[in-house]
Predict the structure.
Amino acid sequence: MTDQPPNSEVPPDFSPDLPPDIPAGSAAVDVGDLVVVRQGTTILDKVSCRLERGRYTAILGPNGCGKTTFARCLLGQMFATRGSVTVLGETLGETEIKKLRRRIGIVNPTTDTGGYHTMGAVVDADLSTTEAVITGFFATVGLYDAYSDEQMGRARELLTMVGLGHRMDLRFGLLSTGEQRRALIARALVHVPELLILDEPTAGLDLAGREQVLATVEQVLSQPDPPAVLMITHHVEELSPKTHRVMLMREGRFISVGTPDQIITPEKLSEAFGCRVFVERVHGRYWLQVLPEAWVDLAKPV
């Protein structure tokens, strides 16, 4: 996997275009020269990209490179210092953000959002699993509004789809971490989102729990008219075989963008993660290994 296609690197002024068969203006996400500066620190530096509707796109990069900040910008939870962000045809700063968020599903397992409440990150643990999913209709942590039989039916349908049909009436707080994560995916899907953002959805899960969540995502992708899916992760093995585009991020910039075969290479991943790695593709999925000789460099004092 060492052969590289021409022009696969991203120059400083990179602004990827949609393929010619995708009509202009039909992107799920269109970001131009996005800059985010907080307290004198540049978190995102001239980030530009387009995400296609109905496609699976992955942002891959190390911790602290700006992946979650990028997701918060798409949700209008963090505002740009400069640049433009258009989501589902709506330009942030010129649209009603609450209405836009109801067209977006978000799964973020982090319970401490640092002051930015992320819909999909937390839910009242005392609710039943079904009620927890129903909160997705109202974009609330608790269930404060009366819900309809139709909404109840939709929640139960989705819980069955994600393999939690036997947990519908159990208190949400009694679910395992992996089960909670799958329930949050169901919650994110209740209003049939046009964009589904998965921000490290398998964080903290064991092997079986991780694979159950990934299998659930694969089910979503296999549905008729799937949403645009943005997977944010630092694990290449979490990427779906249906991945259309990978955007490799480091230090607040996309350093390389392309198809999985173009981007998921030892050279590019070693550059992004600052660690010598080996990668192979087996049964449509990528697997990364750190060779023992790399430990010598990693163990050196900084």
